[in-house]
Amino acid sequence: MRKEIAVIAAAALASFLASFLIAAVLLPSLTGGRITTVTTTLSVTSPQTEDEYLKSTETLLRRVVEWVEDFRGLELREEVEVIALTRSWVVEHWGKGFLNRTEVEIDEVLLKSLLMVPRDFNLTRFRIGFSGYTVAASSDHRIYVVREYFDPRNELRAGATLAHELTHVLQGEYFSTPKPSTSDEEAAIAALIEGDANLVSSTYLLEHGGKPFRMRESELTPLDALPFFPYIYGEPFVRYVYERRGWDGVNEMYENPPTSTAQVLHPEKYLEGWKPVKPDLPSPPGEGWRLLLRDTLGEYFVRQLIRAHLDSAAANRSAEGWLGDRVEIYEKDGLYLVRWKLVWEDGRELSEFLGAFEQVLEDAGARRSGEDLWSLEGERIRVQRVSENALLITIHFEANG
Ligand SMILES: [Zn+2]
Questions:
Q1: Sequence-distant (≥ 6) Cβ neighbours of residue 224 within 8 angstroms
Q2: Region for 334 from its dihedrals, namely left if φ exceeds 0, alpha if ψ lies in -120 to 50, beta otherwise
Q3: Architecture of domain 3-272 in this structure
Q4: Ligand 1 centroid to residue 61 C-alpha, Å
Q5: CA angle, corner 191, sides to 216 and 64, nearest 5?
Q6: Which residues surround ligand 1, an ion (CB under 5 A)?
Q7: Cα 350 to ligand 1 centroid, rounded to whole Å
Q8: CA 188 to CA 213: how far, in whole Å?
Q9: Are the C-beta atoms of residues 25 and 133 closer than 8 Å to each other?
Q10: Which position among 121, 146, 164, 311 has the lowest Cβ density within 10 Å, counted as fewest Cβ atoms?
Q11: Domain boundaries, given as residue ranges, for the chain
């Protein structure tokens, strides 16, 4: 789940446009994951020539630049250039072009072995479809807008999109963030970046008579909710810090960004200096096994894992109290070995997760075949309590089982 989320998240749609996008994102969930068909109904009302389109975008941009500089308290150091793209171009070049197929295949093994998606699910297709919801993006001093979604004549919405992207340009000029080493850390840093941009664009909307749109986790499928984490929880997180410490406090976060989705979900933990633990896994499984992935999945991932089978309240409750996790995936002759150690704040929190996870296994059709052993077609799962507050999940998984 590492790189492609970063690319898509950086380039992805801004949540305030979600009245367009939420439909575009939610509909595929309702129609069985076929993302590509939905957007045909979304198109710009009447055609503008390329020239008119760019000219009105640039006029609007100049006004928004002034507002953003004033509100965010940072001045642009260089001119910003606008480039118009089409949706199909974005899917072709960013959706397909940026996709690391090997990583997607490994992520697919993880999601399938943890019973979050069905055996016949195709993650590559899902990720490429996702790129089709990009409204605008930025890189250095360029802002890209997608013609099917971005209409400069709708000044309120288009202005908010530009405010979001201009915040990204400012972030590039003034701040840098460390390279994340886990998926959990990557989602947390993205939440800071997107949350900052969304706080600016929400305020722009409010000050210009609009109403910010809130994307909600409960309205997304667990699989959609994963890449949308920065857009759902970034803004409340950044707002929490902004209201207590102002923009200086937000700016300082770039030097010491959150390292875990748990800090974003519980901003008070971040401000208290709380940090997750990094559990050790047992020694490697022996000869012939090839390590494919070593990662930390985080509280938010745990939540989606549970939510794929149980309700949101159960998911939130059982993911809370997460203190750290470590996952490894090995491969040998088409057989995968997944080892996932989870550490909880105390034994009670562990039991809460364990109870929910056993319900997930039952819901997925797994049968208990021993005290801590479960099996279903092509898969054996061992769930061991290795200490008062740590759990080790070991899965043998055949991709074609
Ligand atoms: Zn953004």
A1: 25, 26, 29
A2: left
A3: Orthogonal Bundle (1.10)
A4: 16
A5: 90
A6: 194, 197
A7: 35
A8: 21
A9: yes
A10: 311
A11: 3-272, 290-398
Cα(137) to centroid(ligand 1), Å? 7
- C-alpha of residue 169 to centroid of ligand 1, in Å: 10
Q: 179 C-alpha vs ligand 1 centroid, how far in Å?
A: 18
Tell me, in angstroms, the distance from the centre of ligand 1 to residue 244's CA.
23
Q: How far is ligand 1, taken at its centre, from the CA of residue 12, in Å?
A: 6
The tens place of each residue's pLDDT in the chain, 401 residues long, gives: 333 333 333 333 333 232 223 222 222 332 232 222 222 233 344 567 888 899 999 999 999 999 999 999 999 999 999 988 888 888 888 777 777 878 889 999 999 999 999 999 999 888 887 777 778 888 888 898 888 888 999 999 999 999 999 999 999 999 998 899 999 999 999 999 999 999 999 999 999 999 888 889 998 999 999 999 999 999 999 999 999 999 999 999 999 999 999 999 999 999 999 999 999 998 888 889 999 999 999 999 999 999 999 999 999 999 999 999 999 999 999 899 999 999 999 999 999 999 999 999 999 999 999 999 999 988 999 999 999 999 999 999 997 75
Beta carbons of 197 and 189 less than 8 angstroms apart: no
Q: 334: exposed, middle or buried (C-beta count within 10 Å: 0-12, 13-18, 19+)?
A: exposed
Compute, in angstroms, the gap from residue 159 CA to the centroid of ligand 1.
14
Q: What is the distance in A from the centroid of ligand 1 to the CA of 4?
A: 15
Task: Give distance in angstroms: CA of 48 to centre of ligand 1.
Answer: 26
Q: What is the CATH code of the structural domain delimited by 290-398?
A: 3.40.1000.70
